[in-house]
Design goal:
Blueprint: E1 5-11, E2 28-29, E3 32-33, H1 34-43, E4 48-55, H2 60-69, E5 75-80, H3 85-93, E6 100-105, H4 113-126, E7 128-134, E8 141-142, E9 148-150, E10 158-167, H5 168-180, H6 188-193, E11 200-203, H7 214-226
Parallel strand pairs: 1-4, 1-6, 4-5, 7-11
Antiparallel strand pairs: 2-3, 6-10, 7-10, 8-9
Protein name: 2-C-methyl-D-erythritol 4-phosphate cytidylyltransferase
Site (Positions MEP for the nucleophilic attack): 154, 210
Pfam family, one: IspD
Length: 232
């Protein structure tokens, strides 16, 4: 699919830090599930040709119902996730066919078209890319006794976000290699880095938060209000 990309939207987590019985991706903003806000951004993106959504097995039906309700025609498949995020992405990879693949958190609804495009074009130029923002706080490395052992140079630290964009063949190989070696990474770029592929950082926005706590939900409501959208 020349000049197009597919995206795997990962929404299989339970999100215990939110402190609710409902999974965080299905909590509502503007009377609409957070996940749907996220999917709509990619649905309307000119660079995205297909969407594969990964969710828990008990949530497949309601996600499919919402996809029909909101007219999300680019969503080609709702896939059952694995026991962790890495396995969930691997499951999604089996059903996506684009030459370039983005991986995005289902609870990051404030990604913009400009950021999607920048991330894609950087990956095409460099081989892979991740959206990120410079770290604002000083970061300390601590030991098991919670004693500081190192203070990294903050000017070299970035907080990594999504989407992350890769060649399909590279991402497939990275996941297969990780599985063969029983390696667990905290994000997909970590798996790609192990293969020696250069990953470029694309500056994003501090608004592109991952909604995981009640405070995040309050901030998300504020962002929508500031954008002129009514919260119900």
């Amino acid at each position: 699919m020349e000049n197009k990309a597919g995206v795997i939207v990962v929404a299989a987590g339970k999100g215990s830090r939110m402190g609710t019985t409902e999974s965080k991706q299905y909590l509502r903003l503007q009377n609409k599930p957070i996940l749907i806000h996220t999917l709509e951004v990619f649905e309307h993106s000119s660079i995205i040709d297909e969407i594969v959504m990964v969710t828990g097995k008990d949530d497949v039906q309601r996600c499919e119902d919402w996809i029909k309700e909101y007219g999300l025609t680019k969503v080609k498949k709702v896939v059952v996730g694995g026991y962790d995020r890495q396995e969930s992405v691997a499951n999604g990879l089996q059903f996506i066919h684009s030459d370039w693949i983005m991986v995005h958190d289902g609870v990051r609804p404030f990604i913009t078209e400009e950021q999607i495009m920048n991330c894609y074009h950087s990956a095409v130029t460099s081989g892979a890319s991740v959206l990120a923002v410079p770290v604002k706080d000083t970061i300390k490395q601590v030991d098991q006794q919670k004693h500081i052992v190192n203070t990294p140079d903050r000017s070299q630290l970035w907080a990594i976000q999504t989407p992350q964009t890769f060649r399909s063949a590279d991402l497939q190989q990275a996941h297969q290699q990780a599985q063969d070696e029983n390696f667990r990474g905290t994000d997909d770029s970590m798996l790609i880095e192990r293969m020696g592929v250069t990953v470029a950082v694309v500056e994003g926005s501090y608004e592109n938060i991952k909604i995981t706590t009640p405070d995040d939900l309050d901030y998300a409501s504020y962002v929508l209000q500031r954008r002129g959208e009514k919260i119900e």
